[in-house]
Amino acid sequence: MEKELVTIITPCYNGEQFLNKYFMSIINQTYKHIELIVVNDGSTDKTEEVLVQYEKEMKENRIIYKHFKQENLGQASAINTALPNVNGEFLYWMDCDDCLEYNGIEKLVDFLKKHQDYNIVRGKVRILKDNKTVRIGKPKKSESEYIFENYMFAKNAYCFPGTFMVRMKDFDQKINGRSIYCTRAGQNWQLLLPILYEQKCGFVDNIVYNYNIIENSHSKIKVNTFEEELKKIESHIDILYNVLNPMKIWKKYQEEIELLYDRRRIRAGLQYDKYEYIVDILKHEKDVYTNYKKNLRYWMLKNKAFYNLYRKVKFR
Questions:
Q1: Inter-residue contact 211 to 127 (CB < 8 Å)
Q2: CA-based end-to-end distance of the chain
Q3: pLDDT tens digits, one per residue of 228-274
């Protein structure tokens, strides 16, 4: 592991139109000791040509540059392709359709160098749509430095990619064999949760990353049917189980996770008028969970259709 070297890893699928801006944001960093690893995840556009074209420019700017090509297996698989090739003391990951703030890497590295008791740090994120700032992602002033549960339950958890930098020494201790659980549903929980558990996360009060909201992008596709919504919910639970179980904390959080995702199932059922499905969920909760009334109270207060349904059926 090379001291003070920052390794940036990026999965890339059909990123041709974004790559020039992406690469220039790395070349123009105020922090220069960078290793860049890009994995072409089976792109069908001219992504590979662009990745090859930048080899010379990366070398001229003294950026250690590696790129790999694989069949389309998803972002988590691309991350796993990159991880064994990481040589940096610090690890940072970002998407190819976003870009770094000019001093983003420097700000994150400075924090970790000055605060040896922290293994992970995050910064603010500028969220853009059509090149206009929508908002700035940042933690609430009252938020604790212990943010494991915030991210596990998606509570005040802003913009995953490009937000965090981790100390690679700690990463290797927490993620066995430099391999994360592989699924097409995402990669951020697998990378973050083992590092965040029972550890404080630092914060730099600077924008470090620019996150682009792009309709119908590979990583930001919206669901359009009840079945797709349920599939998304199940994929999230699957990731959480496969991350938390090896950490031996799945049972600690299982009921809270199941109740949270039952709430999302009920929301989907209400959206698509699947009332029998909702009744089945609540009957199951009553049989299985000690805290099932939490969801009843939530929906009784929040949704009139649910309130009327509750009064009609016999699941109390």
A1: yes
A2: 59
A3: 999 999 999 999 999 999 999 999 999 899 988 988 998 898 889 88
